[in-house]
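User: Structure please.
Assistant: Input sequence and predicted structure:
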Amino acid sequence: MRNILIIGAGRSASSLIKYLLEKSDAENLHLTIGDLSLELAQRKTGNHPNATAIAFDIFNETQRHIEIERAAIVISMLPAHMHIEVAKDCITYKKHMVTASYISDAMQELDAAAKANNLVFMNEIGLDPGIDHMSAMKVIDEIREKGGKMILFESFCGGLVAPESDNNLWNYKFTWAPRNVVLAGQGGAAKFIQEGTYKYIPYHKLFRRTEFLEVEGYGRFEGYANRDSLKYRSVYGLDDILTLYRGTIRRVGYSRAWNTFVQLGMTDDTYIIDDSENISYREFTNLFLPYHPSDSVEIKLRLQLGIEQDDVIWDKLLELDLFNPNKKVGIKNATPAQILEKILSDKWTLEPNDKDMIVMYHKFGYEINGVQKQIDSKMVCIGDDQTYTAMAKTVGLPVAMATLQILNGNIKTPGVQLPIRKEVYLPILKELESFGVIFNETEMRYVGYNPDHL
């Protein structure tokens, strides 16, 4: 049997493992599922005869070498910074490799070695990055093939709570990596290009510069800019494009409320709060407010941020228990961002019966025969339950599908890569449709920007 080594059995691996196990008899597959937690790996096998769970320590070099040498292909679902040692071993033992993570500089340095050994190192084949690349390149290639010239590309994606589970004022719950949500947008200004003009949004302004989006059947959303929208300009072949913007989707009103945390300084991760484990949520909030002999913490915060008592933002802050004197932070040597994450996790953790939702929205503006047109491509995916979430499906399924395509010799181009070629994206996008990952495209007349507004 063809042995697939899967390293990491976390939440994103559930749909990936299920897919490959369902194909295992027909495709002659055996899965070796390795995780630090043997119990977690065992749960993911579901006692399937074509799966073996092992306790796997990525830092155990001997074990790593043995398992990679035994594999026909390796899937790494580890945190991004841990892929590189696996990748080096895959070069040594001449094994293909698949990850959902961004291509790091260290991974890119292995490109020549991968090509020399005729190995496919497929990266960025999850959701975002992943499905965004594939669905975008499909439309961009179609526009080019009919003689069109790209003038605009905007792409938005968000992990949200499904409408039936949306029961808080923020219209949001953590569906993935809470820490990433708290730190979103930090590390430099957001950068994009609009009608040929470079634009920059500093972090302290990021959540007050949003675009509105409408998705039929699901209502209105907003998008705030990703840190570097121009990262893929050359990769997509869009060096001459006039407008290129990538953003994160939230429900309308989220960003304006989130901006209160940014302005207070609660999202800062650069310093530690003294005696953090013993302070209350109320004391934490008060740390960022000026002293006043008589005003309450609530009044000081409203005055500092200019929030009226009848503003929905105030209701959102109250809902989070920010002013509770009885709840303790309980984390030693915590940064403001870590404390905020703890407070939000109390309220934004998905309940057992909650479902999550992925929304992706692309806008393509192009010119053909002197006429400017626009294509909007929209995808909504709802999770099944807390195991087979929309996030797990959209991250794990493309990884699994690419793995099988590589094993079967359908994806042949060697090297360190992302899924932007037809041999990769056409079969995977087609198969994803049978799992409810469907893009609906509509074409209309393109309305450009008013130059006076740039």
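The two ends are 60 Å apart (CA to CA).
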